[in-house]
Amino acid sequence: MKVKLEDVCERGSSNLKQSDIIGLNGDYPIYGASGYIGNADFYHQERPYVSVVKDGAGIGRTTFHPAKSSVIGTMQYLLPKDNVLPEYLCYVVKYMHLEKYFTGATIPHIYFRDYKNEQFNLDSLEKQAEIVDVLGKCERIIADREEELKKLDELIKARFVEMFGDPVSNSYGLPEATLPELGEFARGVSKHRPRNDPKLLGGDYPLIQTGDVANAGLYITSYSSTYSELGLKQSKMWHKGTLCITIAANIAKTAILEFDACFPDSVVGFTANERTSNIFIHYWFSFFQAILESQAPESAQKNINLKILSELKVIVPEKEKQDEFVEFIKQVDKSKVEVQKSLDETKLLFDSLMQEYFG
């Protein structure tokens, strides 16, 4: 049966500010846009409910919360009626992607009045319970696979420290060198920002953006943009195996190209010489991302310059030890590929089930 969202829930609001709960203690949790933020000796909701981020960052994010809890004022309560299970309502609202209803340029907002007429398929309470169980199992598998990937990354970093010490303090006293001393090192040479000049886009030449690097992991296997012939003339084609380093937005994220590609001046290319390897440098950078992020000046978009990168001191262990570490990475990477495959398959299944149940 097709119904509207307002047929199964009521809107509630909160006037709690995060500053209001500093120093409070109690048995009742309070949640914000990023999750649990503390406890208090009071609560706003007697029964389980759904909340939606209605203001600012994370707008539209939907979460389920237990009875006898509260949310802060940037969140909106969706209080289930008797014809819907709270957990089922949560999946329904996630399926709707309410962020599409945002208004406001500086601080985005969404309003219940704008999305209350969203329609979906409402099942019987018995069927709802079955659907919640199936979707919950999928989400638990997704969480388990994501945790496995996280632990494999932690294993790699632990192995790095075991073999080479803390790279920030150089606790093993290893030889050091700068990136320009260890290989070809230069930023993308595009003369224009591609988004500001459509004549540069839409051709046959892969164009790597900062997001492609930040979201890639160890290897960049896909790209979101392409360059035209004109774009290529104003840029440079970097070869497969190049280590890409971001210097804007997602600062000091790195990944290795799996194909020839161009990239704009917000990405730096590095190709190691015989003293080191791109894989070693990739993992070395993982220890410096937070440091470089903190050094970036506050602006509309954080960025660092080539000078900061070129002055970093890179530890340079014996090449034989570096090669041993790279072999370890390759073995772990095989495990990560299998885990990632399972994760991707489960996410696809989850999305298809959401479409089947609520579409």
Describe this structure in words.
The structure is a single chain. Helices cover 36% and strands 21% of the residues. It has 3 domains: 2-122, DNA methylase specificity domains (Adenine-n6-DNA-methyltransferase TaqI, Chain A, domain 2, Alpha-Beta Complex), CATH 3.90.220.20; 124-169 and 318-359, Helix Hairpins; 175-316, DNA methylase specificity domains (Adenine-n6-DNA-methyltransferase TaqI, Chain A, domain 2). The protein has helices spanning 86-96, 112-115, 125-164, 179-182, 210-214, 229-233, 278-285, 289-295, 306-310, 319-358; strands at residues 2-4, 9-13, 28-32, 35-40, 49-53, 62-65, 70-71, 75-80, 119-121, 176-177, 183-187, 201-207, 219-220, 225-227, 243-246, 254-257, 267-272, 314-315. 29% of the residues are buried. The protein is of the alpha+beta class. The strands form 6 sheets. It has a 5-stranded mixed β-sheet.
